[in-house]
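Troubleshooting: if your tokenizer reports a length mismatch, compare your output against this known-good record of 370 residues.
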Amino acid sequence: MTARRQPSILLACDFFVRYSARLAAGMEGAGADVALLTRDHDLEFGGDPGAAAEFVAAATGGRVAHHALAGRVRSPRGLAAAMPLRGAVREAAPDVVHVQESITNDVRLLLVAGVRPGRFAMTFHDPSPHPGDAVSRRDVVANRLLARRAGLLFVHGEALRDELIANVRPRAPIVVVPHGIDPAAAAPLPERPNVLLFGRMSRYKGLGLLLDAMADVWRRVPNATVTVAGAGEIEPHPSLADRRVTVRAGHVPDAEVPELLATATCVALPYRQASQSGVGSLVKPHGRPLVATAVGGLPELLADGSGLLVPPEDPARLAAALTSVLTDRALAERLGAAGVRTAEREAGWDRVAELTLTAYREHLLSGRQA
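Known-good structure output:
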């Protein structure tokens, strides 16, 4: 019996480079011929020159072709830069073109990828804009129009599937595939209790709710500390002046994330609104329990027992959950171990790649590939 040929794939994105590169690596490991098309900017990596290319090379082991589109969207030179890449993609003739949400930021990427109505896949990470994020009406409309022309859509949770249907009313099938999780790399919990909130900062992330809750936590655990780390908007709050609160403003390089997590007893996701959480998926292999609000796809993220869920906009319940994790080391270790198991068994990038390839074959390639 001959082995089934894996499809050739072009993954294309503007942002979501981390996600796309890891997915590409998983697919390449499954035997697929994969290429990655991105912009040549490094905004997702704090603007550090060359960081995106370095990340892609490391994540894929250099085994995935990486096309980086240079130039500006509205410049004649930018269009000229796109044409050689368009020729290379056309010559490769991928079986599947799979784009990520926000690719409409640069329509040249759609030109280079050769997107054809009904014949491409698209992943929606955030079916609705986050409150407080500067998302233009044009971008929202462009993403929705593109989604309505896709032949296959992906989301990372059932709640997001329902949200996408309500917002977009797509014609294409929607497949739920979990956000991939890196291999397990857990360190022992720290001796001093510490709550970590990190990632891109915006009002919807709930920093104010966390600091409101800490007033109650400190009555029970006066030596507990809070670390806030990430670039973006830091909400003003009186507790930011407390010596037990450390703010590390600015992008956290990937190489420094393990050390940052090693100092945390738990990671808080006190979101006011959410789709899924890339931070939550990143945390699990490090064995840190999550304390999250029950919004968007977060209940599904914690359905494996990797954390505690509380109602949104409820500082008292958030404080109670944080106190439980900070004062009960066995509980914290048990919750963290559940996340590690998920990383090892259920949502590794090889598993995500397998589910994605299966969806391609069922919805895009049926009848087109032997």
